[in-house]
Amino acid sequence: MFYRPEDGHGLPHNPFNAIIAPRPIGWISTRGTDGHDNLAPYSFFNAVGYTPPQVMFASTGAKPDRLRGKDSLNNIEQTGVFCVNVVEEEAINEMNASSARFPASSDEFAASRVTKAACTTIACSRVALAPAALECRMSQIVQIEGDNNFIVIGTVTGVHLRDDCLVDGKFDITRFGMVARLGYRDYTVVRDAFEMLLPRD
Fold first, then answer.
1. Is the pLDDT of residue 166 over 80?
2. Does the pLDDT value for residue 109 go beyond 90?
3. Which segments of the chain does DSSP mark as H helices, in order?
4. Rounded to the nearest 10 degrees, how much is the dihedral formed by the CA atoms of 151, 74, 36, 118?
5. How much is the pTM?
6. Do the domain assignments include residue 5?
7. Under DSSP, is residue 107 helix (H, G, I), strand (E, B) or coil?
8. In a domain, 198, yes or no
9. Using CA atoms, how far apart are residues 20 and 191, in angstroms rounded to an integer?
10. Domain of residue 53, CATH code
């Protein structure tokens, strides 16, 4: 089949995000200027640069208690920092719970029963038991086409790695079962990996 997005796809469910999958989940933690911590998962997330290391995530949609966008976006605009926490299989339920539409003044760490720890390079909390956490300084927020669509780009200023996830000097995502988003309401857990050398190697 072929369809133009502006004409609609004619299927029971939109296939777009099922095509671009799996996508790592950025479990984004932020803190507002009022001191409230926020934690929310974003499946439009990825790394976008090596030197310096940079990441991005997209915030789509709005909340009635925010002028624009969601709590994460507003907190980052206020403070200029955020932390990306990696989601492991054991934290699937907590990650899902943190995606609920809480009031802006809520602490999703507490509401989702997630233990927090202080970041080192930024004034923000992180998921204490996450396999990895990336402390980030916001470099750009770009509004893209469509209502309430924003891309947040950050430079990584600190990296936390859980010791049991390091194997022979490598960060091994199969040790903890990295959670990724598929299309619709589907997720996957990474349990297998293989190595392949590039032609230039």
1. yes
2. yes
3. 16-19, 71-79, 92-97, 108-111
4. 30
5. 0.94
6. no
7. coil
8. no
9. 20
10. 2.30.110.10
Q: Is 90 exceeded by the pLDDT of residue 90?
A: yes
**Residue 106 near residue 36, CB atoms below 8 Å:** yes
Give the 3-state secondary structure of residue 94: helix
Identity of the amino acid at 4 = R
Number of domains observed in the structure of the chain? 1
pLDDT at position 155, please?
A: 98
Confidence of residue 65 (pLDDT cuts 50, 70, 90): confident
pLDDT tens for 29-54 read 999 999 999 999 999 999 999 999 99
Range of the domain at 184: 19-190
Identity of residue 194? F
Q: Is residue 14 within 8 Å of residue 46, measured between CB atoms? A: no
The dihedral built from the CA positions of residue 18, 24, 25 and 30, taken in this order, carries a sign that is negative
User: In this structure, are strands 26-31 and 178-181 parallel, antiparallel, or unpaired?
Assistant: unpaired
Place of tokens 């997209």: 58
- Tell me the three state secondary structure of residue 97: helix
Looking at the domain assignment, is residue 197 inside a domain?
Answer: no
Q: Which of 70, 52, 179 lies closest to 121, judged by CA?
A: 52
Is 132 within 8 Å of 160 (Cβ atoms)? yes
Confirm whether 119 is domain-assigned. Answer: yes
Report how far apart, in Å, the C-alpha atoms of 148 and of each of 27, 95, 103, 138 are: 19, 23, 18, 18
Residue 139 confidence (pLDDT): 98
